[in-house]
Amino acid sequence: MNQFFSDTLRKLRTEKGLSQQALSDRMFVTRSTVVRWETGSRLPDAAMISRLSEVLGVDVNVLLFAAAQSDLRPNVILVDDRKLILNGGLPILKEVLPNANVTGFTQASEAVKYAEENRVALAFLDIELRNTSGLELCRELLRVNLHTNVIYLTAYSEYAFDAWSTGASGFMLKPITPEGVREQLNNLRYPFFWGGEGA
Fold this sequence. Notes:
This protein is an alpha/beta fold. Helices cover about 50% and strands about 15% of the residues. It has helices spanning about 5-15, 20-25, 30-40, 45-55, 60-70, 85-95, 110-115, 135-145, 160-165, 180-185, and strands at about 75-80, 100-105, 120-125, 130, 130-135, 150-155, 170-175. The strands form 2 sheets. It has a 5-stranded parallel β-sheet, with helices on both faces. The chain has a two-stranded antiparallel sheet with strand order 4-5. α4 crosses α5 and α7 (about 110-115) runs parallel beside α8.
């Protein structure tokens, strides 16, 4: 839940004398999008936050600060079509990221749906997924939120070149290890508070 941002947005909208519908009209989004922002189920991206600051007549840094506070319990996902990898990887991610909501998926479509409803700060993606590829899934996740950090997981180092071209933050060879995860966390494109050493 992104409660700090949602409370801030609701307060600013009310002070401006705008209804949710009026705000959505000025933002060129649906009213349900504003509702999701104000219930904390989703955060707007950076472009939307900038537009919100203009519409509400407030310094953009007020909203950016509120969004940053909402990331104190970030959402982290692991996507691999093999349950064995999920069963081994999820406990490691929870150990290294004690402050995060860590969720696993075997289906790319489920991961995208989750990302559309929750702001994903970090995604660990298997490159070879059934019916799709991690590279394509990365593009979908970045379409939903350009500031999602993506780290690819694979057993094959030859994928590295293709992986970098998608805007990913990192690349890890399997199996997932605590040391490997910590190393990747130090090189994220969009750093966030993850609750571990060096965070």
